[in-house]
Amino acid sequence: MDKERPDPDKILRDIEREEEKKSSGRLKIFFGYAAGVGKTYTMLKAAHSLQKNNIDVVIGYLEPHVFQVERRHKQEQRK
């Protein structure tokens, strides 16, 4: 048995690095050329998908207009 003992400091650094990755959030920005191209609809659809997987979602700003596509998305969520 010529196996070397793993370096405990390296193992600890690796674990800490993995924990850091898990605790950091992500920023996702939805861009579109003009109003009504589906930015809000796509964002809400992605948010609902993440929430179904028990991932917390926070929306920083939501434009207060309602387009036909968004209404359709809300109706789909109620089903």
Write up what this structure looks like.
By secondary structure, the chain is mostly helical. It is built from three helices and no strands. The chain has helices at 8-23, 39-52, 68-78. It starts with 7 loop residues before the first helix and ends with a helix. The mean pLDDT is 81.
Radius of gyration using CA atoms only = 21 Å
Low-confidence stretches: none
Distance between the termini: 62 Å
Q: Helix and strand succession?
A: HHH
Computed structural class: mainly alpha
What is the approximate shape? elongated
Counting H and I runs of at least 4 residues, what is the number of helices?
3
Mean pLDDT: 81
Q: Hey, roughly how much beta strand do the residues contain?
A: under 5%
**How many strands, which pairing sense, and closed or not: the largest β-sheet?**
none
Helix share, percent: 40-55%
The number of strands is: 0
What structural keywords apply?
3 helices; mainly alpha; single chain
What is the topological layout?
Elements: H1 8-23, H2 39-52, H3 68-78
Can I get a quick summary?
This protein has about 80 residues and is mainly α. The chain has helices spanning about 10-25, 40-50, 70-79.
